[in-house]
Design a protein that fits this description.
Largest sheet: 14 strands, antiparallel, barrel
Shape: globular
Helix content: under 10%
Radius of gyration: 19 Å
Structural class: mainly beta
Number of strands: 14
Distance between the termini: 30 Å
Strand order of the largest sheet: 1-2-3-4-5-6-7-8-9-10-11-12-13-14
């Protein structure tokens, strides 16, 4: 499957119309824990405003099998007026640790600054709304246990001068099937690390300040998972961007249960390059 995905990446290169971005990131914790991610974003030949991306992620930890995820998506930004972006994406997690899934996601991002005729006292203001549907399969039983999950999410972003901030809310609105087994991989907006379980809801905030080519930032996310206790995470990082190359280093303190004082510490590093 990895070879097929690499071949798909190579086939997309002729579709690029001369610019794109390649990013890679890594997260490290104790007990051999690590998460590696890579993503390629590019425009599409002869279609202004149309973009596509391909992604891959790998999670590893002592005592469990490696888990991989593959994703791809398209987004269309109405050209010239910078008002609305719509997109769709999907992904697949092959069977590992008696679990697999596939999912799709649709979203719309509205430039409120343009809608308000630039009258708001900010330089940028954007609202994104989306829906994700996930098909979980647990291979512990015969026949397999299948669960469908629907989530909604919203993000509000603003920038004023060098200061920027965003707030993201995600909420599960529907489950179908037996949820007694917990998924081993849960991506949460604002989390550097990968959690486990089903999403109930999450609320996160990220704030930073850009001075010339550096952006220090802080982030906090509160997470409630179905069948599990409430958790939260606090993180700090620094982004350095110069001449089309960006580097980001961060540390995150993840509380596995707010009923205890124990926090796991994760370190992450990411790098990206934009090319013309």
């Amino acid at each position: 499957m990895k070879k097929l995905f690499i071949a798909l990446c190579l086939l997309t290169l002729p579709l690029a119309y001369g610019h794109g971005q390649l990013t890679a990131s890594g997260v490290m914790g104790s007990d051999g824990y690590s998460v590696l991610r890579a993503r390629f974003d590019t425009g599409v030949l002869f279609i202004p405003g149309l973009k596509m991306h391909l992604g891959y992620a790998l999670a590893q930890q002592d005592g469990i099998s490696d888990m991989s995820r593959y994703s791809a998506g398209l987004a269309y930004d109405i050209p010239f007026i910078d008002l609305l972006e719509v997109g769709a994406q999907g992904g697949w997690q092959p069977k590992a640790n008696q679990y697999s899934n596939y999912w799709y996601d649709v979203y719309a991002a509205l430039n409120l600054h343009e809608v308000l005729f630039r009258l708001a006292p900010v330089d940028a203001l954007k609202l994104s709304l989306g829906y994700r549907h996930t098909y979980h399969t647990f291979h512990h039983t015969t026949p397999n246990t299948n669960v469908q999950q629907g989530d909604i999410y919203a993000t509000l972003f603003q920038r004023t001068g060098g200061f920027d901030a965003s707030v993201t809310y995600a909420k599960a609105i529907n489950y179908q099937g037996d949820t007694s087994y917990n998924p081993p991989w849960l991506d949460v907006p604002g989390f550097v690390s990968v959690a486990s379980g089903y999403l109930d809801y999450s609320l996160g905030a990220n704030a930073g300040y850009t001075y010339k080519f550096i952006r220090p930032y802080a982030a906090y996310t509160l997470l409630k998972r179905k069948n599990l206790s409430e958790t939260d995470t606090f993180g700090m990082g620094l982004v350095v961007q110069l001449a089309g190359i960006s580097v980001n280093g961060a540390v995150e303190w993840f509380n596995f249960s707010r009923n205890t004082e124990f926090r796991e510490r994760f370190f992450s590093f990411s790098a990206g390059v934009s090319f013309l």
